[in-house]
Specification:
Elements (H helix, E strand, L loop, with lengths): L3 H18 L4 E7 L12 H12 L4 E6 L4 H10 L4 E2 L5 H17 L7 E7 L13 E3 L16 E3 L3 H11 L2 E6 L16 E4 L12 E2 L4 E2 L3 H8 L6 H11 L7 E2 L2 H14 L12 H4 L8 H26 L4 H45 L4 H4 L4 H5 L4 H13 L3 H27 L2 H15 L3 H25 L13
Parallel strand pairs: 1-2, 1-4, 2-3, 4-7, 7-8
Antiparallel strand pairs: 5-6, 8-11, 9-10
Helix pairs in contact: 2-3, 2-6, 4-5, 6-7, 7-17, 8-17, 10-11, 11-16, 11-17, 14-15
Length: 493
């Protein structure tokens, strides 16, 4: 005869057995660290420490393929990913192996309905080209000489993530992909409303990594640094995204694939993009947005003006709507408008100086046509200002040395012809400079002055981005209470 206790224990055992049988699998892959120059460390080291701490202090089964050759970075991998499987350097081969491994886990049933799969990519990224749907990222043991197109680095594109996303969605596996590279908004070209995708920035902006020194300690102001620092067990990816986005102080535009995120991006992103461009000595996205030829300059200026008017009108409308119930939201919209106005004023002044440069170029071309019509083959394919700034002294020295060392009459004639051409170009350049009107000389000085001070655009762009982040959060959180669950909110660490 069963006692009350034995009956209770029998019922408890029946309840416990299936629960143990259906434990959720949680698999995490950390990939990246490519495109960095040789040395002991990489720009991604601080992020690696934070994400490693999450890995070591959680129940996620982690696989890491990161870096390849930087001593301090390898030390971080050894200490902060001590519980992880180290799949070796981040190469194209290892990247494809990791993606295929994730696909196999889903197809085999190792990862099944309700299980979680998380992929973080943290490396240098390139602008999207016509060759890929997403974009290319840099792999290890190669150095990116150009952080826009990753020339010099070995790369792999992320297009096969679409196959992974579609398979996970079909099998009910909860998949989250975080691309923390530059131009990572291109990840969201993959459309799948059952997968959580997060990017560190937009499709046309740089992303940021690293820390800045505050004496006794260092800290990060980047989205990826804030995001990884906030990754704690029990938190969901939507909340982490919003908190990290609001805290970052960089000229970027982080994106999330939720319905609310895509709606706000459709509303704001294209219009806000021109005000995230800046010059800083290394990158000149502010200046480069203007055409180098005067023929299309006014069209660009007109487009910029229309874009600004539309964005300002949109912000005023939202400010008026939110002002009824939310004074903080009203202030956020107002602050963004003010930061845009400050940027726009600088932009207008710069356009005046650039217009003056184009007018000067017309005078240079007119003088060349008048004074040197028979030498058109020398100057017709050179931009007028480039011709005026002709600096071939080093090349002239090389040709003179080659001439002195030449042993054949044919080679001496060739080098002498090259020398004569350079001397003629210098004479023409000096003659045109001397013939320029005072008005054109002043316009050139104004443009040179404007360009030399154009690094102020970085501060202006950062301010616009920071204020835009507050507006983004106001819009997003306003809709959260009315929105249904989404893959990022449902993805619990």
């Amino acid at each position: 005869m069963k006692t009350a206790l034995s009956t209770f224990l029998s019922i408890y055992a029946l309840c416990l057995t299936p629960t143990l049988g259906f434990a959720i699998e949680k698999h995490f892959y950390m990939l990246g660290g490519g495109g960095e120059p040789k040395g002991e460390k990489t720009i991604f080291d601080n992020d690696l420490k934070n994400i490693g701490s999450f890995s070591n202090n959680s129940d996620w089964k982690t696989t890491v393929s990161f870096n390849g050759g930087h001593g301090r970075t390898e030390d971080i991998l050894a200490s902060r990913f001590s519980k992880a499987i180290n799949a070796g350097p981040f190469l194209e081969k290892s990247y494809n192996q990791m993606i295929n491994e994730m696909i196999t886990k889903i197809e085999s049933g190792l990862l099944k309905d309700g299980d979680q799969l998380m992929l973080v990519i943290n490396t240098h990224g390139a602008r999207n080209t016509s060759k890929e749907k997403t974009h290319a990222i840099a792999t290890a043991k190669s150095t990116a000489n150009d952080l826009t197109n990753l020339s010099g680095a070995e790369t792999v594109n992320l297009d096969n993530l679409e196959t992974l996303a579609n398979l996970a969605a079909a099998k009910g596996v909860k998949l989250a992909i975080m691309d923390m590279s530059c131009f990572s908004g291109n990840l969201l070209n993959i459309k799948n409303d059952k997968v959580c995708m997060i990017s560190a920035t937009g499709s046309k902006q740089f992303g940021y990594a690293g820390t800045f020194d505050l004496g006794l300690f260092s800290m990060t102001n980047t989205f990826s640094g804030k995001f990884f620092d906030l990754m704690k067990p029990g938190k969901n990816l939507e909340d982490i995204f919003l908190a990290a986005r609001e805290k970052a102080w960089t000229a970027d535009y982080p994106m999330i694939s939720t319905k609310n995120g895509r709606l706000i991006d459709d509303l704001l992103y294209k219009m806000i993009t021109p005000y995230l461009n800046y010059n800083d000595g290394q990158f000149n996205s502010f200046s480069n947005q203007y055409p180098s030829r005067s023929e299309t300059f006014e069209n660009t200026v007109c487009s910029q003006s229309k874009n600004y008017d539309q964005l300002k009108s949109l912000l005023v409308q939202y400010e008026q709507v939110d002002a009824v119930t939310d004074q903080l939201a009203k202030q956020n919209f107002k602050s963004l408008r003010e930061s845009l106005e400050e940027y726009r004023q600088y932009q207008l002044n710069y356009e005046v100086s650039l217009r003056g440069q184009f007018q000067t170029e017309k005078e240079i071309t007119s003088l060349l046509e008048k004074k040197y019509p028979d030498q058109k083959k020398i100057w017709k394919d050179i931009a007028p200002l480039d011709f005026l700034d002709n600096q071939d002294d080093s090349q002239l020295s090389v040709y003179k040395k080659l001439l002195s060392e030449s042993k054949s009459e044919q080679s001496r004639k060739m080098w002498q012809s090259s020398i004569d051409s350079i001397i003629l170009k210098k004479e023409m350049s000096e003659s045109i400079k001397a013939s320029l009107s005072d008005e054109s000389r002043n316009k050139l000085k104004e443009y040179e002055k404007a360009f030399s001070k154009s690094d102020v655009t970085k501060k202006l762009a950062v301010n616009v981005a920071s204020q835009a982040k507050k507006v983004y959060e106001s819009l997003y959180r306003k809709e959260m209470s009315n929105s249904s669950p989404n893959p990022c909110r449902d993805f619990i660490l």
